[in-house]
Amino acid sequence: MTTSPRRVFIKTYGCQMNVYDSERMAETLAPQGYVRTDTAEDADLVLLNTCHIREKAAEKVYSDLGRLKPLKEANPDLRIGVAGCVAQAEGEEILRRMPLVDLVVGPQSYHRLPAMEAALREGRKVVDTDMPLEDKFTAMGPRPRAARGPAAFLTVQEGCDKFCAFCVVPYTRGAEVSRPADRILAEARNLVDAGVRDITLLGQNVNAWHGEPGGLAALIAALARIDGLDRIRYTTSHPNDMDDALIAAHGSETKLMPYLHLPVQSGSDRILRAMNRRHTADQYLRLVDRIRAARPDILLSSDFIVGFPGETDEDFEATLALIRAAGFGAAFSFRYSPRPGTPAAERPAPAPDVADDRLQRLQALVTAGQRAAQDAMVGREVGVLYERAGRLPGQMAGKSDHLHAVHVPDASGQIGELVRVRITGSAPNSLSGLRLG
After folding, report:
1. CB count, 10 Å around CB of 64?
2. What DSSP state is assigned to residue 4?
3. What is the largest CA-CA distance in the chain?
4. What total number of domains does the chain contain?
5. Residue 436 DSSP symbol
6. Are residues 242 and 345 in the same domain?
7. 268 with 333, same domain?
8. What is the mean pLDDT of each run of 10 residues along the chain (437 residues)?
9. Can you spell out the DSSP letters for 98-116?
10. 416: domain range?
11. Which of 97, 128, 159 is where one domain is finished?
């Protein structure tokens, strides 16, 4: 008699690290008979893998839990879990606020999911927000060799020791921890064997990786020697961890793509001090100059927080000045969101209408820079890795070396091909081009 597989639905919020964690949670549950499903309605177990960086992200989790209530009422055997950073930050409070939840598991404990799932089937509720001493990646063992798409994430570092005044990551993810190089390389080889050609290395402070002498530059050099791995990227970086070797790698490692996400948050030295960023605007811009000297065609992106406590009009104008000076090809900007337990949470912030106005002005400037960067690509030749069929018949879509979305008319194109393309057009959020050769 064949037993029907159990089904798990995992909804992922927030950053790329959560995307990677969701994959690993599904793999951890597979030996217990679980397969992933695309809808909560089909699931025996629902996991919400959460983000706690901004208030709205956390509140969205509770809204989604409310929408799951009819499913729980219709199927009392349905088990619902909250994982990730909201789980770590709020723990038992989630069960108090949402009694339909059966499982709360923090981001450092999901290797224990099989034991937790067994407890759920016995009718017990589980909360595990410990930060255990054992390495969760080692505990889970090698990843299964299932066929993969051409691009993948690979977490190499977790946690943060920077303690920026606005950020909950040190409290939800813990101290900086680097995975050993041999395990990262083994996982990368497995990914390549499964069809991956483009790997993005992930970490809260990925360039603080110290799993072997030489830091992240040495790891990139080792990865670059893997046959079949054609592209390497990394995110997210801290300016203070951009060492000389890593800067040089952008000029010497041909597989390291010309794209770098380097958050600065503000262009005001006064606000940077209040944020505990430990660098100045001038230091950041001089770092940008050094990176561009190593790789002149690099596309830089950044993060900005608008309306941080104490931000004046002069502080905001300094941020706009830094954006103009740096010439970002992309950026992510947000209105300050106080997170409970962080040093900035109790400080008075600018009025919401003032912060909203500043955010709109900053985003307009960033959008203009992004459009200029994309328009400058027209006429250039770039590599494009086909990741999916395009929206139009006979069209392929993929990412360029600079991480731009590119659409190419190519009826014979195949997912996983890395092709040369001449860019012929620029739209608001993508490029178009013609395949060469």
Report:
1. 16
2. P
3. 72
4. 3
5. -
6. yes
7. yes
8. 79 88 92 94 94 75 92 94 89 91 91 91 90 67 76 94 92 88 95 96 96 96 98 97 98 98 98 98 98 98 98 98 97 92 93 97 97 97 97 96 98 97 96 95
9. -TT--EEE-TT-GGGHHHH
10. 381-435
11. 128
